[in-house]
Amino acid sequence: MSEQPIIEMRGxxxxxxxxxxxxxxxxxxxxxxxxxxxxxxxxxGLNDVSISVQRSEIFxxxxxxxSGKSTxxxxxxxLIDPTAGEIFVxxxxxxxxxxxQLSEFRRTKVAMVFQKFxxxxxxxxxxxxxxxxxxxxxxxxxxxxxxxxxxDTVGLSGYENSRPFELSGGQQQRVGLARALSMDTxxxxxxxxxxxxxxxxxxxxxxxxxxxxxxLHKTILFITHDFDEAIRIGDKIAVLNDGVVVQTGSPGxxxxxxxxxxxxxxxxxxxxxxxxxxxxIMQRGEFEPCDVSVQAASRCEDVLPIFAxxxxxxVTDDDDKQIGRVTSKQVIAALARYTPASRS
Length: 344
What we know:
The strands form three sheets. Strands 6-7-8-3-9-10 form a six-stranded mixed beta sheet, with helices on both faces. Strands 2-1-4-5 form a four-stranded antiparallel beta sheet, with helices on both faces. It is of the alpha/beta class. The protein folds into two domains: about 55-70 and about 100-270, P-loop containing nucleotide triphosphate hydrolases (Rossmann fold), CATH 3.40.50; about 275-340, CBS domain Like. About 35% of the residues lie in helices and about 20% in strands.
């Protein structure tokens, strides 16, 4: 029996306009987003979207601007109500919640990190991080102590008394992340959280998130338009196009088997070494212990530099037991096999 999803959306449709219910009938009859806009002036934000996010999973929703990504994530904490469909979080029907229940849900069950940081300019870093706890009603000293711990965790010790305008973009985003983490919710909603950052800073924040996830094991719904970011951090990816989920799967599944031309265009220039995992190409079995090893979940890009000094690289399981080995020839052969030209 499979585990119940932590976040589940079933057939969610969102139509913006004066009479969304009338437009809903037309959309269900097969009218496209462009046709709905031309015929009735309604905008189809989401069209029959269903996703399931498992516990401790980083689930990435990606697509171009206007594809419906931000509309989707705002349904989870009901900042937006759907025109049709169902939404469940931890098995609870979010759409049936009263105003009081919804307020409690937002304070205690989910935390959100925004693209534009959402920091209060008149507050210090410490008080920005503590703000959510203040709204929750946590005693002043307790919330400041917790905020200080998370500020240290995201690498901002010494900036507690700084104002947001005194920080770089990357530092401001760390404050936003610390504020969300301080709420100690099981679920993090991250809407284009790193998109406003310079490439090097964005890469650093991606590393920071992955490092934190190794110990925090949060359930994260992450929105991005950057496919490289999606495959770098995502356990599973859903690709949106005009409000429709056109493909859902692991990064490897999507890169190696794109569902249509829209997805294929995204993956055409992807670094395959970042997608293919060692356990899919390794030699399994008992071998002499290798001088150096990587975990089975490592990507090819992680193991390639090691071949400069080692012929064989061991592959270990989660308990650091060697379960096989891999060579440079196996990695190179895998990358050559999975080029766009090989799809025919």
